[in-house]
Specification:
There is one protein chain. The chain is α+β, with helices and mostly antiparallel strands. The chain folds into two domains: 2-162 and 343-396, FAD/NAD(P)-binding domain, CATH 3.50.50; 167-335, no CATH class. It contains 15 helices and 21 strands. A seven-stranded antiparallel beta sheet has the order 16-15-12-13-14-11-17. It has a three-stranded antiparallel beta sheet with strand order 2-4-3. The longest helix has 16 residues, at 381-396. The chain is elongated.
Length: 397
């Protein structure tokens, strides 16, 4: 029996990937493990049971053709998350399992026969229980952290949950004024200025697309480093240091700006900059550094909107290089669980047997998915981990 507290199943599937559902990433099991860092080794057995290729084959066998988009994300060809949910519902019907919707679990206790599960409608006895209640991200979809209390009551340690893959907020006004501007390729670092050691000062970094919003910063790069912000005791002391031209070295940019000033002295600096920057980053389009952003960065370097290239001083040139390559943005916090794609923290991995997903503390109790202390980057990694751990647990039940 599958108990679902929502009136309809698969709410998070339907809303994921902009309602397209990013099933997995175009990589192998080793690529998924590597993406998870230290906790990735916990996934070895789960990925052996259901690798990314096997997951794609599983859905395609149920009529969901897939495609790989630039960057490695795997989506249904139809771009419809409803097709993914339909395939899962077909598998559910073939399995002979019973789906009970609108029936939330209140308690899970040990009993003489295994477990007593109290729901909003009845009490059930079960010899085995698999908890896949998710984390606390997007609570409006039903994931409100219920499973943590059940696991804790059964003796498990809960690593404090915190938002991950969530937008980052700032009080920096010029950033908020760029609402709607998208940059295709930015290297974002989370920096703790209070740390003396240069290498340790960088808490996380990610290169990817970047969106300016009315509250601050969103898009894959800022969201992927947000776990470092939510995990810091004083997030408002942190800085996001952004390299808006990651393919170019600072000295090359400085030389190109110097040549611009010497050879095109009558032209406005702000008008010339997008083309100049595109020359130094052949893998990015000119649209990657739109005019509004260029003007804002120039203003940060005290370069006037109507200033001519011949008027660019050495100090302004240095400041412009810094504004483009090492732009520091103050952090005020994040948008929290309400806008987080996944939850960091959860049931401690030390207390779960990775070969079966069974609890090491309570026989017959299993865990899978986001309730575990597992969170990966954007790009289908979290869905793959959920599918693989769920698949392995199902095999072992």
């Amino acid at each position: 029996m599958l108990l679902e507290k929502n009136r309809r199943p698969g709410v998070k599937i339907l809303m994921s990937g902009g309602t397209r559902c990013n099933l997995t990433h175009d990589t192998d099991a080793a690529g998924i493990v590597e993406a998870y860092g230290k906790s990735g080794r916990f996934l070895h057995s789960a990925l052996a049971a259901l690798s990314p290729a096997a997951l794609v084959a599983l859905f395609e066998a149920d009529g969901v053709a897939t495609k790989v988009e630039p960057g490695g994300k795997v989506f249904p060809v139809s771009d419809r998350a409803t097709d993914v949910l339909s395939a899962l519902m077909q598998r559910l019907q073939r399995s002979g399992a019973t789906l009970a919707t609108g029936e939330g679990v209140a308690t899970i206790e040990r009993s003489a026969n295994g477990f007593r599960v109290g729901t909003s409608a009845r009490t059930l006895e079960a010899s085995q229980v698999l908890i896949t209640a998710g984390g606390k991200s997007y609570p409006g979809s039903g994931t409100t952290g219920d499973g943590y209390a059940w696991a804790a009551a059964l003796g498990h340690t809960i690593v404090p949950p915190r938002p991950a893959l969530t937008p980052i907020t700032t009080n920096t006004e010029w950033v908020r004024q760029l609402q709607g501007v998208t940059v295709t390729d930015v290297l974002v670092r989370v920096v703790d200025p209070a740390v003396d050691h240069a290498k340790r000062r960088v808490l996380a970094q990610r290169r990817g697309s970047f969106l300016f919003a009315h509250f601050g910063l969103s898009g894959p790069a800022p969201m992927d480093v947000s776990r470092a912000v939510t995990g810091h005791p004083r997030p408002a002391t942190l800085l996001l240091v952004c390299d808006f031209l990651p393919d170019a070295r600072e000295h090359a940019l400085d030389e190109r700006l110097r040549a611009m000033a010497a050879n095109d002295g009558k032209r406005r600096i702000v008008a010339m900059l997008p083309g100049v920057l595109a020359e130094l980053s052949p893998n990015a389009s000119v649209d990657g550094l739109p005019a509004r952003l260029v003007a804002a960065l120039a203003a940060r370097a005290c370069v006037g909107e109507d200033q001519r290239a011949a008027e660019l001083s050495k100090n302004q040139r240095t400041a412009l290089v810094t504004a483009i390559k090492r732009q520091a943005i103050g952090v005020s916090g994040t948008r929290g669980f309400a806008k987080a794609e996944v939850t960091a923290g959860g049931v401690s991995l030390d207390e779960v047997d990775s070969r079966s997903m069974q609890s090491k503390l309570v026989a017959g109790l299993y865990f899978a998915g986001e309730i575990l202390d597992l969170d990966g980057p954007i790009g289908g990694y979290n869905f793959q981990a959920a599918f693989s751990t769920g698949y392995l647990a199902g095999e072992k039940l």
